[in-house]
Amino acid sequence: MYDYLISPFIEFEFMRRALVGAFALALGGAPVGVFLMLRRMSLTGDAMAHAILPGAAVGFLFAGLNLFAMTAGGIVAGVTVAVGAGLIARSTGMKEDASLAAFYLVSLALGVLIVSLRGSNIDLLHVLFGTVLALDDATLLLLAAIATISLLALALIWRPLVLECVDPNFLRSVSRSGAPTHLVFLALMVLNLVGGFHALGTLLAVGIMMLPAAAARFWVKELTAMIVLAIVLAILSGYLGLLLSYHSGAAAGPAIILVAGILYAGSVLFGPVGGLKRHFIPVRHLEA
Amino acid sequence: MIARSVLAALFALMLGVSPVSAQEKVPVVATFSILADFVKNVGGDRVAVSTLVQPNGDAHVYQPSPADAKTVADAKIVFMNGLGLEGWLDRLIRASGTKGAVVIGTKGIKPQEMKDEDGGHGKEHAREHKLDPHAWQSIANVKIYTANIRDALIAADPGGRKIYEENAADYLKRLTALEKEVKEAVAKIAPAKRRVITTHDAFGYFAKAYGIEFIAPQGVSTETEASAKDVAKIIRQIKAQKIPAVFMENISDPRLMQQIAKETGAKVGGTVYSDSLSDEKGPASTYIDMMRHNIRQFSAALTS
């Protein structure tokens, strides 16, 4: 048991680093994921993850696999797309989802094009899939910083953010904090995606955000409990995914997301809040 | 008046002395940079070589562009490596409708099998790439490439026979000198220290020809992402066998190598080139420079 579950992390530093990275991602990403889900923006996260690519690619083009350049580029591109899509949705007749789709498709194509300009297609794979097994000190610090910022910022905007999820019209009638709250929240999403992209790559970064959040939804109704559970599930996915990769030889990033997927499937089946089991095996009514 | 007669004289000179260069050069295509370098050395000024996979790119997973199809369509000869390196080439040749001859550089070379240490994730790849395509890592094989290229060029352009034969003979002489140099460098490394970890097992032929053992953290092909199991195995191995040096390849993820080196205390060697040349300014812009650069890197890390 010990050999299976713990000794890989005792023996190998890279496993410990990967685990710490996964924890940091879980702490920052899962709460953001819960809010994204409650605001029906689950797919926005996915679109944004793709939107980050050209920024990271430009950073890569100028500085190679340089942490700072790729992070800065990713943040700039993510914020540009988020704000641009929002502006177009607000100033034209187009709905936000359609304008976001337009933006992210363009930037995904642009990103692939920019990476391929450098002439090496292997690099593109690293950008798309990340390297959770090769987190150096700088990357870990970045991930930890992002998790800290996310938790602090969420604590600060908690009340207006919750209100916006529940009843945006009411919030508008009592306070003007709606728009800034929304912007801060979008920025948090971009930050977490950029962090996740270093470890898991642009394609999978959004998985560690959304899957635990969606799974937690099937177990509890109360928001705080849901966030805590999402974090726990995300941490569990990171831990079990790394073990899976260690013992079976599966690629690490996809293994983590797959474990999260399995947890999600289990929650869909057995979760007490709207899970399938409840649906098909109705609880007996109380009889007098 | 004077200018015009000079021009006319020049023109006559071009027509008279070297009719070929006044015509167009023979257009040929080579699939990747190392092969293109061989063709340039044998063809000299008589051929115009286009390369599909540019320096620093990876020929295993290349995606041809429409411009490539046009280049192939116009070529008189398409030089390919063979042994399963260019899985994408067949379709490109068919799609381009080229009438040029397709010449396999490794024809006549005795292929080595890819070494497949574990039965795990290497398996599905072993079926696709049974043979190790990186034959150019042995200089003796490059002599066969050179002969193949010479014969193909003569067949396509009989008028240049003498030039091709001279160029090839000259290149073979330089290859022999290079081979001697590499063998001498290896001889200076203590036999127990002739072990290296590198990201990509492209050095199978090099290992066999010159007696340095290469262990790779990734599977047989750059297509697979390394798993935690692979990395753990390699770290254990470095520690257990006291492997002195870790080498990065120019096209694999350097971060993973640094992590392994840091965890094991092995020395990180400089960049070595295996599948592609560097660009013009780099240290390995020709095949001979590449081999010289690599052996220098190996001996620097292993003799200290």
What is the gist of this entry?
The complex is a heterodimer of chains A (288) and B (304). Chain A is an all-alpha fold and 288 residues long. Chain A has helices at residues 2-5, 7-11, 13-38, 42-63, 67-91, 96-117, 121-129, 137-156, 158-166, 168-174, 178-200, 207-216, 223-248, 252-270, 276-280.
Q: Write the CATH architecture name of the largest domain in chain B.
A: 3-Layer(aba) Sandwich
State the helix count of chain A: 15
The counted number of beta strands of chain B is 8
Structural class of chain A: mainly alpha
CATH class of the largest domain in chain B: Alpha Beta
Number of domains of chain B: 2
How many discrete domains of chain A? 2
Main beta sheet of chain B, described?
Answer: 4 strands, parallel
Order of helices and strands of chain B: HHEHEHEHEHHHEHEHEHEH
What is the CATH superfamily classification of the largest domain in chain B? Nitrogenase molybdenum iron protein domain
Structure description:
The complex is a heterodimer of chains A (288) and B (304). Chain A is mostly helical. Chain A has 2 domains: 1-38 and 134-273, no CATH class; 41-129, no CATH class. Helices cover 81% and strands 0% of the residues of chain A. Chain A has helices spanning 2-5, 7-11, 13-38, 42-63, 67-91, 96-117, 121-129, 137-156, 158-166, 168-174, 178-200, 207-216, 223-248, 252-270, 276-280. Chain A is globular, with a radius of gyration of 20 Å. With 304 residues, chain B is an alpha/beta fold. Chain B folds into 2 domains: 2-177, Rossmann fold (3-Layer(aba) Sandwich); 182-303, Rossmann fold (3-Layer(aba) Sandwich), CATH 3.40.50.1980. In chain B, strand 1, helix 3 (33-43) and strand 2 form a beta-alpha-beta unit. In chain B, helix 4 (66-74) crosses helix 5 (89-96). Chain B starts with a helix and ends with a helix. Classes of the chains: A mainly alpha (288), B alpha/beta (304). At the A-B interface, helix 3, helix 7, helix 13 and helix 14 of A face helix 10 and helix 11 of B.
